[in-house]
Amino acid sequence: MRRTYRVASVLGIPVMVSPTWFFLAALTTWILAVQIFPGWIEDQPRPVYILMALASAWFFFGSIILHELAHSVVAKLYRIPVRSITLFIFGGVAHITREASRPLAELLMAVAGPVMSALLGGVFFGVWWLAGSNTHRPIDAVIVWLAFTNIGLAIFNLIPAFPMDGGRVFRSLLWLLTGNYHRATLIAAWSGRIFGWALMAAGAVSLAGVDVYITEGYLGGAWLVLIGVFLENAARQGIFQNRVVRKLQAYQASELMLRNPPVVDAGMSLAALARGVMDLNPRVCYFVSEHGRLAGILSHFQIKSVHEALWDSTTAGQAMIPSAKLRAVGPAQPASDVLMEMETDELTHLPVVEGGQVLGVIGRDRILGVLLQAGYLRTA
Ligand SMILES: [Zn+2]
């Protein structure tokens, strides 16, 4: 993500601001100052509308921080660390480091934000009522707008479209009912994608000049399309993440680990370590390619035939057995024949080729190893 700036810290949680947020803040203030408040209360001087807009925006973003703080506090109660709260172009987001491990925890964590917004809406309405339920003073317009906006925020966030709060509530309920976290995530994420598409469609229709009731004009239409794209993307990411988690759940750490890694002394040099590869894997063997063609074979035999002091200045091409000296063997050729070929030309490795395609390489030591294992030889 782009760079964010730390502006405050609440309950030990840093509050960050993304540069994209300034666009949202400016847009909100502008719409309030030139459109909404002049429509509510007429005949006020322009500075009054600007002050009303600034005060509303200030408390609005404070409300968003409180909404995210509510999510964060519940997360902390469940011992899930919260990295930060960030304000960005689509509002706010709490960076909760991991998902809840139980459906009830997820339910409470998700519902806390909308509950906080609804409470704030109630508080603003209460303040307005205590102040005399006036409708024509600028301060009343600000308080009523904040009340409606917070309640609107609570309702919008409760739409069951993952990863919005309502989508998380929806998922936790499905999870609680079915006991299947993956299926719950998939269903909630698909409802999120469908909702995203619906917003994009509504925005596009609005841009075409049709009344879609929830918004009007080019700005509202474009905004709906943007939010739709953002939500659809986030929901799709949720599906992808779930797929990755499921894939990895099929493996245990013991299946993927390297058993008994070699132990080296801390004082050992890297050059010595690189040389040590030869000791750890004595059957090192490479195909050497030149201009995309097989130029030769380089095995531990050829590497060891060069003095260690010259390793830095010798290339693979210089040390390899060139392919002109090699004779290809077929994959079905009996190992006894292959060994015979090697013995006649004193070769240690031969490429296995079929229909002009190099399938692999067969080593003399590998063939002798079979004999060793079968007890036909004492040393290879
Ligand atoms: Zn929320």
Short description:
The chain has helices at residues 19-40, 46-77, 103-130, 138-157, 165-178, 181-207, 217-249, 253-256, 270-280, 300-305, 316-319, 335-345, 364-373; strands at residues 5-10, 13-17, 82-88, 91-96, 285-290, 293-299, 321-322, 349-354, 357-363.
What are the salient characteristics of this protein?
CBS-domain; 4-stranded mixed sheet; binds zinc ion; 9 strands; 58% helix; single chain; 380 residues; alpha+beta; 3-stranded antiparallel sheet
Describe the fold and architecture.
By secondary structure, the protein is an alpha+beta fold. Among the domains are: 5-158, no CATH class; 278-373, Roll (CBS-domain). It is built from 13 helices and 9 strands. It has helices at residues 19-40, 46-77, 103-130, 138-157, 165-178, 181-207, 217-249, 253-256, 270-280, 300-305, 316-319, 335-345, 364-373, and strands at residues 5-10, 13-17, 82-88, 91-96, 285-290, 293-299, 321-322, 349-354, 357-363. The chain has a 4-stranded mixed beta sheet with strand order 1-2-3-4. It has a 3-stranded antiparallel beta sheet with strand order 5-6-7. Strand 3 and strand 4 (91-96) form a beta hairpin. The two termini are 58 Å apart. The structure holds zinc ion (ZN). Zinc ion binds next to helix 2.
User: Which strand-content bin applies to the residues?
Assistant: 5-15%
* Helix fraction bin: 55-70%
The sequence of SSEs as H and E is: EEHHEEHHHHHHHEEHHEHEEH
Distance between the termini: 58 Å
